[in-house]
Here is the input.
Amino acid sequence: MHARKSAKGQTAITEVVWNDGPGSGTGGGVSDITPVPSYQEGKVPRSINPGNFAGRAIPDVAADADPNTGYLVMSGRAARIVGGTSASAPLWGSLITRINASLGARVGNFNALLYNTIGPAGVLRDITSGNNDTDGLLNGQFAAGPGWDACTGWGVPDGAKLLNALKSK
Here is the structure.
């Protein structure tokens, strides 16, 4: 994620897939073992490995993964910045918990809603720049683009938009 100042002095956020080179970037792809769940059928690609297995694709969603720009947390009486799944999973879990509380009910099968309505409707902020090919071996096959991709899933949360979309489900 990169920030830049506009001519009017406002900060604009430009988000790109976290990829700092070998061993330092986001993951994603399609499983060669776990079958594709029904809510992903026809919405995600097959594996790029030999046999092109129709497997479970990840990620479903994204959040700031780069440990240099991640989230400030307290750990062991010290403040530090963390990123990756260890930061984004609790962020998403907390967001859905707050949405459940606001709705007065659980949202239910969030993944089915995500792939059938929320994602295709553009409720999340789509990340369309960058790739997760940290070793340069995938020939651009896992690049970010419009809609679901194997770098950032459907995108990052906008809590208010997500709540409004789930109110109308």
